[in-house]
């Protein structure tokens, strides 16, 4: 089950009608909820194209964040089990372009096995549950939770990959890790046509990818702006700090020095297209994990030079539900069982 926010102040489940529907002053309206997704005011954009077009509508979202805290979180029940750190040395996440044919095949086979088990759909459902408040389009808290939440999410996926890979390749000397896809590189050709999971909305194979602009995915200059020139970002938020400016640009809300939109994470989703452009169900496409591993790697690189920068998160906002870890548990990748093969942009 997942929840959606609507600007009318109606809170409803998109999957079933057993979820609570809450009307709140002063947003109660007599007209029915608009599900046309044609108005700019609608706050659950279905695609990353819409997310990009929406900008960062902070004014309306702060109220909804409050609604979420008071009314939704208590209804959601317990967190998923804590995943302990795996034993042994950390695994190395590699550039997908450098991955051996054996590892490419092992990755694809492990994903197929997770799909067959039903585990893959369980993982996708974590991302479809927008009540976890893990994207900037959900407001300021979502902006600050974006990096920590997705880091924890990738760890969950990586450990599931390793679990099934140990069965599929019992003699393997190296554990699988999530590869990363540098945005300036072309789409990983070894994943062409590889869409083994069904669209959770329809139960049928997802639409094929587009892999074309617009929007542009970030080039080398854009990535340099995101990581090294983050201080030029003007978020308009109160109490903005280095962390605010960096995550704002990396997620995809930023500006280039000439004032044009700075392509970041959001733009990569829209550029790949197909189900990657679906805000909720994008992890259905396995390239999601490679795209987010690059987000995570760029954060890791930035962290080395900006170790004291912190998101403005306190209390339960700091806990990356449905898991039990707080932001503080997610600062160091080695603690989570992985390192990157390169810390160059
Ligand atoms: Cu994403």
From TrEMBL:
Top-level division of the source organism's lineage: Bacteria
UniProt keyword list: Copper, Metal-binding
Protein name, per record: Tyrosinase
Cross-referenced Gene3D superfamilies: Di-copper center containing domain from catechol oxidase
PROSITE patterns assigned: TYROSINASE_2
Cited InterPro entries: Di-copper_centre_dom_sf (IPR008922), Tyrosinase/Hemocyanin (IPR050316), Tyrosinase_Cu-bd (IPR002227)
Single GO MF annotation: oxidoreductase activity
UniProt keyword annotation of Lipid metabolism present: no
Segments of skewed composition (Polar residues): 210-219
Pfam families reported in the protein's UniProt record: Tyrosinase
Region: Disordered, residue numbers: 194-219
Family: Belongs to the tyrosinase family.
Residue span, Tyrosinase copper-binding domain: 285-296
């Amino acid at each position: 089950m997942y929840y959606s926010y609507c600007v009318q102040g109606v809170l409803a489940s998109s999957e079933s009608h057993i979820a609570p529907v809450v009307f709140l002053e002063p947003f109660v309206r007599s007209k029915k909820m608009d599900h046309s997704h044609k108005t700019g005011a609608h706050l659950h954009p279905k695609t990353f194209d819409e997310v990009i077009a929406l900008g960062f509508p902070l004014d309306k979202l702060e109220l909804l964040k409050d609604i979420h805290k008071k009314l939704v979180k208590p209804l959601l029940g317990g967190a998923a089990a804590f995943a302990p750190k795996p034993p042994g040395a950390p695994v190395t996440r590699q550039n997908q372009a450098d991955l051996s044919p054996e590892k490419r095949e092992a990755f694809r086979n492990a994903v197929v096995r997770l799909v067959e088990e039903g585990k893959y759909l369980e993982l996708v459902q974590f991302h479809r549950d927008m009540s976890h408040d893990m994207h900037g389009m959900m407001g300021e808290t979502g902006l600050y939770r974006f990096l920590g939440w997705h880091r924890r999410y990738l760890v969950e996926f990586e450990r599931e990959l390793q679990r099934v890979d140990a069965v599929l390749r019992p003699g393997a000397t190296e554990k699988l890790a999530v590869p990363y896809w540098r945005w300036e590189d072309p789409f990983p050709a070894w994943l062409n046509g590889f869409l083994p999971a069904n669209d959770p909305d329809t139960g049928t194979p997802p639409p094929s990818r587009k892999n074309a602009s617009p929007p542009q995915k970030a080039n080398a200059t854009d990535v340099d702006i995101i990581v090294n020139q983050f201080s030029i970002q003007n978020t308009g938020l109160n109490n903005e700090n280095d962390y605010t400016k960096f995550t704002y640009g990396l997620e995809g809300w930023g500006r280039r020095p000439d004032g044009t939109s700075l392509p970041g994470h959001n733009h990569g989703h829209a550029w790949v297209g197909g189900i990657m452009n679906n805000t909720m169900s994008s992890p259905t496409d396995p390239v999601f994990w490679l795209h987010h591993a690059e987000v995570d790697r760029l954060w890791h690189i930035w962290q080395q030079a900006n170790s004291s920068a912190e998101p403005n998160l306190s209390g339960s906002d700091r806990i990356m539900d449905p898991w039990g870890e707080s932001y503080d548990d997610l600062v160091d990748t080695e603690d989570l069982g992985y390192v990157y093969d390169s810390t160059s942009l």
